Amino acid sequence: MHKPITRRAALAAGTALAALGPWAAAARAAAVGQPAPNFELVDVNGKRVTLAEFKGRHVVLEWTNPGCPFVVKHYGSQNMQALQKEFTAKNVVWLSISSTAKGHYDYREPVALGSQYKEWGSAQTALLMDDSGKVGQAYGARTTPHMYVIDPAGQLVYAGGIDDKRSANPADVKTAKNYVRAALGESMAGKPVSTPTATPYGCSVKYAAG
Description:
Number of helices: 7
CATH class: Alpha Beta
Low-confidence stretches: 1-27
Largest sheet: 7 strands, mixed
CATH superfamily: Glutaredoxin
Shape: globular
Structural class: alpha+beta
Number of domains: 1
Mean pLDDT: 89
Distance between the termini: 37 Å
CATH architecture: 3-Layer(aba) Sandwich
CATH topology: Glutaredoxin
Helix content: 25-40%
């Protein structure tokens, strides 16, 4: 027979959960095969953007931080920009999201963030500010980059790393299997995604404390 949970034990468990911060939220985050959580954020130009407005189209979510060497790997090699251009040309929506907390040394104000990605020649549909980290935590975004693919029905069909070469070396892009390209190609062809999840790699998302 199970012993009842005491108030002290419940409080201790709650304290431990709170101490995990965003990682506890990640455990309850969106899952592949389930509806992608809707959200509303403001882009670097001050425009409000919601996920719901893109229903009926494939959507890519890309968690990003220009201070991360793994992000620099994919932008410095033009890998990320090539993907963005390839799929936005096919009516895919590409939303890059910064969940870096204000006060962290990697944080950039919207104008500065936009300028950096413009300098890199990025081609996302919108570059969004998630200073509170609520959207990142709703999706369980752990790293920059961390990639998600949503189908036209609003279902999450891929979540994980951009590819299978877990390094910061730009040379590895050439020989990597790109999971995002594969997921989009299969989903857009009406096929199930053969690799729906993969371990994300990169720098940890710099969430706000608490």
